[in-house]
Amino acid sequence: MKISSIIDIVDGEKLNSPSISYIYSIKTEAKKIKQGDLFIAKNIEDIPKAIENGAFAILIDTNTSILDFEIAWIKVNNLQEALIKLIRFKLSHFDLNVFYCDTITFNYIQILKNSLNTQIKMIENCLDNFLLILEDIENENILIFEDKELMDKLYPKNQDIKVSKFKYENLVEHTIFESSFTYKELFFSKIRVPSLYINEFLTAYYFLEEEKELIKLKNSTLLKPIFVDRFLNQVEFGKSNKFILIQNNSTLLEKEITYLKKKYKYGKTIFITSKYINNFFAKQNIIEDINKLKEFLIQSEFNAAYIIGYTNEEILNILDTKQTQLTLL
Q: Which superkingdom heads the taxonomic lineage of this protein's source (predicted)?
């Protein structure tokens, strides 16, 4: 792409008269810069590294010293808006099938789609990751977004994947995480889908025209339990009457908490938040320091601990730390 074209697209200001006139690719991480790339400098401290790696152009939205007059320096009002404009320009050259779906359906499509199917691109809420996908986009590709606002900005010609209310039959709820049911003479036997999300699952299932591997549903992050013993050692799925659920998507809280209250009356559920949540749907135990969380869990009586505000990785680290301590003893 020509430097002059980039300046026009982002409505930028050229700060010098470079000797180069084009770039090959767009990057936001200095360590991933290769010779000929445009570096979008979200952190100006990374600029020297980007230049060292071969950047042909630097895009900035703040004042900084020009370190190399051979490459292009372009200033814009807002880097995020400039990045959106650049991606939108690149996408406008392709004839694409672009869809939006809710987070739940997005998760099931992502899990069920064949890993060898490169035609379908899953677009999460991160422009930096989108740049990696952008390099491989071809005509007739299918792009699926979970952020409608972002989708509308990048590719206005799009459509929604709407969740239908399927008339499935013979529902058996083996656990709050597993279901069996029949739909259109197709029997789904004890799949890792809570009854709460069957409609979204079927929406994803029938959107994909390829063969699906239902065994992969165990990798879904939706209401995914971490089973533990009384010492918080992890155990296999279903091998304990204690489990932990982690959720950081605020749009799913009410739905999932209502589901647990209705379907898990026989067990004791506690709700833990990293900070106070206004108008919460249950009694919340506020644990602001994650280092105090594991001790709270050990001392608490519960069957289900629904945790909000900490990542899956943070919780797993806590469990691993506890296991290490027991091993040392």
A: Bacteria
> Do residues 259 and 283 lie in contact, with contact meaning Cβ atoms separated by under 8 Å?
no
Question: Is the pTM of the predicted complex or chain greater than 0.70?
Answer: yes
Q: What is the DSSP letter of 223?
A: T
By the 8 A CB rule, do 239 and 227 touch? yes
Residue-wise pLDDT for 32-72, tens only, equals 999 999 999 999 999 999 999 999 999 999 999 999 999 99
> 232 CB contacts (<8 Å, ≥6 apart)?
294, 297, 298, 318, 319, 322, 323
Number of domains comprising the chain = 3
What's the rounded mean pLDDT across residues 216-222?
A: 94
CATH number at residue 320: 3.40.50
Cα separation, 166 vs 188, whole angstroms: 14
DSSP string, 120-178: EEEE-S-HHHHHHHHTT--TT-EEEES-HHHHHHH-SS-EE-PPP----EEEEESSSS-
The closest alpha carbon to 168, from 198, 210, 209, 140, belongs to: 198
Q: DSSP letters along 267-327, please?
A: S-EEEEESS--TT-SS-EEE---GGGHHHHHHHS--SEEEEESS-HHHHHHHHHHHHHHHH
Contact of 136 with 124, CB cutoff 8 Å? no
